Amino acid sequence: MHAPRRALLGALPLLAAPGLLRAQTGPWPNRPVRVIIPFPPGASTDAVGRTTAAVLGARLSQPVVVENRGGAGGNIGAEAAAKSDPDGYTLLISTISASAMGPHLYPRLGYDPVKDLVPVARTCHTPNCVVARGDLPANTLREALELARARPGQLLFGSPGNGTSGHLIGESIHRNAGVSLQHVPYRGTAPLLTDLLAGRLDIVNDNLPAYPQLARDGKVKLLAVTSAERWYSVPDVPTVAEAGGLPGFSAMIWWGVQAPAGTPAPIVKQLSDIIQEGFATTEVRDRLRNYSIEPAPQSTEDFARHLEAEHKRWGEVVRSAGITLG
Prior knowledge:
The protein has helices at residues 7-10, 18-21, 44-59, 75-82, 96-105, 141-150, 165-177, 189-197, 212-216, 240-243, 265-278, 282-289, 300-321, and strands at residues 33-37, 64-68, 90-95, 117-133, 156-159, 182-185, 203-207, 220-225, 252-260, 294-298. By secondary structure, the protein is α/β, with parallel strands linked by helices. The protein has two domains: 7-126 and 252-321, D-Maltodextrin-Binding Protein, domain 2; 128-243, D-Maltodextrin-Binding Protein, domain 2 (3-Layer(aba) Sandwich).
C-alpha cells in the first residue's frame, strides 16, 4: 500500500465542515472520550498515551478513558480507531510503527492508515539506541559494524518484533553501513532483554529507556543513539552519525494523536490546540523525561507533513530490505 503524493495533506480538507458539528446532540464533548493506545500497558507508548489522556482530561469537561489494544505492531488498535464513529469520542495514540511503517509491512490491512485516519497533533519523540552484549569484542558502533562486516550474516541483531521501529531503524543503519546481520524478532522488550543479558544476542536496536542503567551497571554496551544530536538523558553516548561513521543519519521514534476520518474540523482544531498547549508545559516535560522522551508538539498541518515524510522514508526502507509481514 503506497500513499499518493500529498495524500496525508490532502486528507485535511476532508474533515467535516463546521456545520456538521451542530448535528451532534449537544456541544462536544458531552460524554467520555476514549483514547486507544495500540500497545500493551507498561511500554513507552503506554506512558505517552496516559500522559496524553491526562492532558485532555485536565482541559475537557468530560472523563478521558484509556483503552490498551495491542498487537500487530500497533495495527489492531489503529484499525479499531479507524473504524470508530468520526464524532470526536475516539482518538488514537499514533506511532511511527503503525502510522508510517505498518502500511508498507502489512499490505492486507483491514483499513487504510492514510485515508481512514486524520492527524490531530504530534506530541513527543525520543531516539532509539544501539546496544551490544557486554562481552561483544567491540566497544564502539564503528567497531561493531566492522565486526559485522568481517562476519556477514553471522552476528545476531535483536529487535522487539518484526516491523517495529527497532527492526526498521536497525535495518536502516545496517544498509547504510553496508553490513548484514541476522534479525531475531522478539515479542517486546522484556524477552529481548533476557536474551541480550544472557549473551544470546550480539546487537539490539530498541527504545532508549530500558538500557542506560544496564549500561551503567556494565551489563550491556550502549553504543549510540539514533537522534541527530546527543540525547539529554545520556549525554556521553554518541549518535549513530558520529559513532558509526554515517554522516547525516538520524531516526526518531514519535507519537501523536489521530482521529477517524470525517471527524469534524472544529473538534480536531480544539483537540490540537489542547494537546499543543499541554505538551508545552513543564509538568508534562518532566513527566515524559522520566522515560527519556521529549515533548515535540506539532499542529495538525505540520503533523500531516511529518506523517507524509515518514511514510515515504520507511516505505523505501521496507522495499529496499524486501521486508513483508502479511
